[in-house]
C-alpha cells in the first residue's frame, strides 16, 4: 500500500443543490455539504434531528468571530426554546442539574473563576511531566494486540488511552479505572442512541465522583481533584457540586475528543500514504517538527469536534450578513470553517507540513480547549508510537464500509479495522 497514491481530496466541488444534512451519507463525508453551505448559505438555519432549530455557521471568518462574540452566551437558559429542548449538547449527563455548572455551560464571571481554578493543571509544563505515563500506556496497549496481526484501533487503542490518561490526571486510583472505562464506553457507544444504559452509567459515575471527592478531602494527593478541593478550601469559592461537574466535564471534553483525534488521524494517514511515509522518515530521523505540525493538520483536516458546543444569542446579532434573533441557538461548524478555501490553501488536501494553520479544531476565545496541551501530547505519542511499532499498518476495510458514530457535536469512527505483520 505504500506506493499507492494519496486519497484524492474528498471534496472536488460543492454539490449543485442544497444538500440534505444529518443523513447517513452526510455522517460519512460531511465536507461536500459544508462546501455548499459556505458558498450558498454560510449562516444557515436548519432543523436538527432532535427537532430543535439552530443556525449553522460555516465560514472561517464568521466562525472565528462567533466563537469570540460575547453576545453569544453558553448558558442554555438563554435558549428561546429551552423549556422543551432536550439533550441539546449530546452530553448525556448535562440534563442532570448537579453537573450543569461546568465550563462549557457558563459565561463570565463564573467561567473566569472556574477556569482559573483548573487551568493550573493544564500548563504545558504540568502536562509534559505526564509524557512518560502516556508513553507507557501507549506501549502497553499496543503490546496487547501487536502479536495478533490485526486490531480494531478504536476499541483496542484510541478508546482506552485517553480514559486511563484522564483517570490518572483526576486521581482515580488504578484499580477503579476499568469501571470508568466501562461507564465511559457505555456513554460513547450509545451517544445519540438508546438512553437507558447511558443514564445508569452517568448515575454510577456521578456517585463514584462524589465519593472520590469525599475520599480526597480526607486523604489528598497530587492530583487534579485534590487540587480543586484545596482551592475551594482556601476560599476560592468552588462548591462540591462544581468540583464534581468539573471532573465530569474534563472526562467528557477530554475523552471522546482524543479517541477521535487518534482514530480520525490514523485513518487520514492510512489514506494518504505519501504523507505518512514522509512522517515516518521524519520520525526515523529523530525529528519532531513534522509530528507537531502534522497533529495540528490532522485536527484541521478531519478534527474530532465537528461542531462547537451550543451558543445562544442574548440579543439580536448579525453574523455574516444574517440576522439572528435573541434566543436563537448558534452552532459553529468547526469542520466547515477549517476547510474554508478563503482561509486555507488547498483546504481539502492533507499537508502535514502546513505552516499557516490557525485551525479552529480547539475552538477560539475564552472557551478555547483547556486540554489542548494534553491532547497534543496524547496525539503525538499515540500516532508516533503506532507508526514506529507497526510499520506496515494498513486499513483492513473499504473506506465506504466504515461507520461513523452519530451525534451532533463529535466526529469519529465507530471502528477502525487494521492489519499488520505480527511481532
Ligand atoms: C473545550 C476540542 C481534548 C478539556 C474545547 C473546545 C473544543 C475542544 C473545540 C471548545 C468548544 C466550544 O467552544 O464550544 C478538543 C479536541 C481535543 C480536546 C479537538 C482532542 C484532540 C481535550 C482534553 C481535555 C479537554 C484532553 C482535558 C482533559 C476541555 C475543556 C473545555 C474544552 C475543559 C472547556 C473549556 C472552557 O469552556 O473554558 N475542546 N478538546 N479537551 N476542552 Fe477540549
Automatic annotation (TrEMBL):
InterPro entries: Cyt_P450, Cyt_P450_B, Cyt_P450_sf. Gene3D superfamilies: Cytochrome P450. Residues 1-16, 72-91 are annotated as: Disordered. Belongs to the cytochrome P450 family. This is Cytochrome P450.
Amino acid at each position: 500500500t505504500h506506493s499507492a497514491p494519496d486519497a484524492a481530496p474528498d471534496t472536488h466541488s460543492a454539490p449543485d443543490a442544497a444538500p440534505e444534512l444529518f443523513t447517513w451519507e452526510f455522517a460519512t463525508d460531511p465536507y461536500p455539504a459544508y462546501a455548499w453551505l459556505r458558498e450558498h448559505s454560510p449562516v444557515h438555519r436548519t432543523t436538527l434531528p432532535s427537532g430543535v432549530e439552530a443556525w449553522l455557521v460555516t465560514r472561517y471568518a464568521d466562525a472565528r468571530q462567533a466563537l469570540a462574540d460575547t453576545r453569544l452566551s453558553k448558558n442554555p437558559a438563554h435558549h428561546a426554546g429551552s423549556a422543551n429542548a432536550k439533550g441539546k449538547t449530546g452530553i448525556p449527563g448535562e440534563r442532570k442539574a448537579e453537573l450543569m455548572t461546568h465550563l462549557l455551560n457558563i459565561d463570565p464571571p463564573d467561567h473566569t473563576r472556574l477556569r482559573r481554578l483548573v487551568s493550573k493543571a493544564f500548563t504545558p509544563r504540568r502536562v509534559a511531566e505526564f509524557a512518560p505515563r502516556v508513553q507507557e500506556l501507549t506501549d502497553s496497549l499496543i503490546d496487547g494486540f501487536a502479536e495478533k496481526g490485526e486490531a480494531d484501533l478504536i476499541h483496542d487503542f484510541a478508546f482506552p488511552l485517553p480514559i486511563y490518561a484522564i483517570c490518572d490526571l483526576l486521581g482515580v486510583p488504578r484499580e477503579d479505572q476499568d469501571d470508568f472505562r466501562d461507564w465511559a464506553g457505555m456513554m460513547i457507544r450509545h451517544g445519540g442512541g438508546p438512553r437507558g444504559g447511558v443514564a445508569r452509567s452517568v448515575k454510577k459515575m456521578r456517585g463514584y465522583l462524589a465519593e472520590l471527592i469525599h475520599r480526597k478531602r480526607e486523604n489528598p494527593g497530587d492530583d487534579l481533584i485534590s487540587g480543586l478541593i484545596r482551592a475551594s478550601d482556601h476560599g476560592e469559592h468552588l462548591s462540591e457540586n462544581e468540583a464534581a461537574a468539573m471532573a465530569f466535564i474534563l472526562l467528557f471534553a477530554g475523552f471522546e475528543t482524543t479517541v477521535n483525534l487518534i482514530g480520525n488521524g490514523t485513518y487520514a494517514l492510512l489514506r494518504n500514504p505519501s504523507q505518512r511515509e514522509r512522517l515516518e522518515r521524519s520520525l526515523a530521523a529523530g525529528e519532531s517538527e513534522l509530528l507537531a505540525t502534522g497533529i495540528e493538520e490532522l485536527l484541521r483536516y478531519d478534527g474530532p469536534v465537528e461542531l462547537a458546543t451550543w451558543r445562544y444569542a442574548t440579543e439580536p446579532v448579525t453574523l455574516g450578513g444574517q440576522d439572528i434573533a435573541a434566543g436563537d441557538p448558534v452552532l459553529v461548524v468547526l469542520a466547515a470553517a477549517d476547510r474554508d478555501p478563503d482561509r486555507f490553501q488547498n483546504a481539502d488536501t492533507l499537508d502535514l507540513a502546513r505552516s499557516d494553520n490557525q485551525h479552529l479544531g480547539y475552538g477560539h476565545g475564552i472557551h478555547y480547549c483547556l486540554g489542548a496541551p494534553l491532547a497534543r501530547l496524547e496525539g503525538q505519542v499515540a500516532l508516533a508510537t503506532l507508526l514506529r511499532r507497526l510499520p506496515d499498518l494498513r486499513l483492513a476495510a473499504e473506506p465506504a464500509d466504515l461507520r461513523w458514530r452519530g451525534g451532533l457535536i463529535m466526529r469519529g469512527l465507530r471502528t477502525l479495522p487494521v492489519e499488520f505483520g505480527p511481532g
